[in-house]
Design goal:
By secondary structure, the chain is mainly β. It has 2 domains: 41-112, OB fold (Dihydrolipoamide Acetyltransferase, E2P); 123-186, OB fold (Dihydrolipoamide Acetyltransferase, E2P) (Beta Barrel). The protein has 1 helix and 14 strands, in the order H-E-E-E-E-E-E-E-E-E-E-E-E-E-E. Strands 4-7-5-1-2-3-6 form a 7-stranded mixed sheet, with no helix packed on it. Strands 10-9-8-13-14-11-12 form a 7-stranded mixed sheet, with no helix packed on it. Strand 2 and strand 3 (60-62) form a beta hairpin. It is elongated.
Length: 187
């Protein structure tokens, strides 16, 4: 009798586990409960044109007022809505994720690429001076900065940066425009 009771309990537990697993579908995006989110958009940003973001794969991601910038489930860190060239983004679209152009439903990650990743850069050097919205590197190169310039370190985007002589930086700036990204390598 004891063996029959144990076998019945084991069978009920197995049915419970299978039922619970079957109700958690991979096609459902994050609903705010703990667990894994569905990511079907990701890549390094190579261009930003108004509300369209181009990734290194060539995919265009449309950001709209309906796009939710969702925090990380484990840390609840907020995700910046300011997407710039060189950032790595991950998100979810309800469109066909294999399409060349998709609308983002959610953005889960929007950060500077960490060491070893792909960071789009076109300037690099050691800061010689910072004056009136212009960084001068030791090689004489001048980089304009503005309120729109995003500053980052290895751990991500930082606010209220005060650059000083001797900082090693790299970043991206369009010709005759302020830098969109300044990444501080060493300070």
């Amino acid at each position: 009798m004891k063996k029959i009771v144990i076998l019945c309990l084991a069978a009920m537990m197995l049915v419970g586990v299978l039922t619970a697993c079957g109700s958690n579908t991979a096609a459902t995006p994050n609903t705010g409960t703990k667990g894994k989110v569905v990511v079907n958009i990701e890549g390094t940003v190579t261009a930003v044109n108004e509300n369209e973001v181009t990734l290194d794969s060539g995919k265009i991601v449309v950001i709209s007022s309906e796009t939710v910038f969702a925090g990380d489930l484990d840390t609840n860190n907020a995700v910046s809505e300011k997407i710039v060239v060189g950032n790595f983004i991950q998100g979810y679209t309800e469109d066909d994720p294999d399409a060349e152009k998709v609308s983002a439903s959610k953005i889960y990650c929007n950060s500077a690429v960490q060491t070893g990743g792909k960071l789009v850069i076109n300037f690099e050097g050691t800061v010689a001076s910072v004056e009136d919205g212009c960084i001068t590197l030791e090689d004489g190169q001048k980089i304009q900065i503005s309120d729109e310039t995003v500053f980052s370190i290895a751990s991500g985007v930082v606010e209220n940066v005060i650059l000083s002589e001797g900082y090693a930086i790299q970043g991206y700036a369009e010709e005759d425009a302020p830098a969109s990204r300044v990444h501080i390598i060493a300070y």
